[in-house]
Here is the input.
Amino acid sequence: MSSIETEVVTVDPEAADAGVIERAADLIRAGDLVAFPTETVYGLGANALLPEAVAAIFEAKGRPSFNPLIVHVADVDEAKKIVAVWPPEAEILARAFWPGPLSIVLPRRSVVPDAVTGGRSTVAVRVPANPVALALLRASGVPVAAPSANRSEQLSPTTASHVLAGLSGLIPFILDGGPTAAGIESTVIAITGAEVRLLRPGPISRDEIGVLIGQTVHLPDGKPQDVHSEFASPGQMLRHYAPRAKLSISHHPEAEVEKLLSFGERVGRLSYAKHANADLHGLTVITMPHEPNNYAAALYARLHELDSLGVTRIVVDAPPTDERWLAIWDRLTRAST
Here is the structure.
């Protein structure tokens, strides 16, 4: 892919310049790529109705073509234009969580190209909560396919500078709306007949979903999801969300850190203890929040920070194992593969 000039334009999330948003919308309608902030991470958007535009996402990211994309729309009415079935559970969840970090996998209409879904008969759809994202969707007037705006398998971006570091020269335009809020990707569920399944954990828990719809949201069976399956979700590659430095999750981080330092590694540690190993040469310690939503909001930014410092190994203190931390464990486990 030949190098192009990447323009970064800063916008105020609370009062985005209409001219800048319209420029980005023109690019989307024309089949070009635009990176933009959502409330989860930055997305790399293209007109979801143009197969050649969607193909450009896969080329820029180096993403396997069988890995499906989430389609972002401005509201429920727009979602209904691309899905073939809108069950009661979808209506309940959309009213509760849209705009917000919930993606719903449903049977698709034929207007959605195979390039978006990897040839599957379903499509993941959501309405993002970020005001810049919503302004772009409304101005473009088309559904926008948008995975995270990073090279495949690498750390998702939570700032425009993260996007630029990974995709400079590969995409034409980045809307810089500041840091994202949630910090990790959306929760993904599939509604298949009478059953609701969690495909990817995220900021909205399965308990929250289950209470609203009055039924159990089924967990994965414990095996890595087959990325070729009918209802495969984004984020199911075994290695994903990974920093450049090799990452490990440790139940005995002090001992692991000292061992790695003895081998001459430059080590970064995500710790719960403020002064953990802090006086050891060659070690950078970052203290993480103890509450899961705050931890999630900080996770990718802190991993990007450690990569920028040139550490060669990252040791992460093992988080708690209760269900509130399910999304964190998912991201860390894939990053450590």
Observations:
- The chain has a mean pLDDT of 93.
- The chain has eleven helices and 15 strands.
- Residues 7-218 form a domain with the DHBP synthase fold (CATH 3.90.870.10).
- The two ends are 28 Å apart (CA to CA).
